Task: structure prediction
Amino acid sequence: MRALSLERTGAIREAGRRMSYAGFDGRAFIGAKLALFVGQHLLVTLRDDRPDLPYRAMWDFPGGGREAGETPVDCVLRETREELGLELVPGDLCWGRGFGMGSGRGWLFLARVKRVELGKIRFGDEGQGWRLMLPDIYLGHPRGIPFLKQRLAVARACLPTA
Result:
């Protein structure tokens, strides 16, 4: 599937209260993640260390599972609000792509915020904390989530400049 440059194509648009964008054809997906950049750094969260949790105690991106009727954009914006307290809007997203096939399909979005937004973070009840990390550090980190490393590597060519 072709990567979407949402910012350059203006593909995210409001349709009533629902968001739609090029590339989402209504097929099932399980969730969405956000590679959130502050300058050249990536905001990552440390997952809880519970035995029942996949990727426990690993560095993650904001995002998570789809709720009924959500689009990938709806999902990633809600999860970012719940996990970090940041009120992003669809126009903040600059790139998005679906990965995988069938019901296992997941989305990765990229967004860039100004450093001042860090003061607005209100960490939710999931995870142990957050930090900023250079993308190269994340890609080589032993506690980076493997599928997110793969998706971030694909997305790097599409990263907007600071």
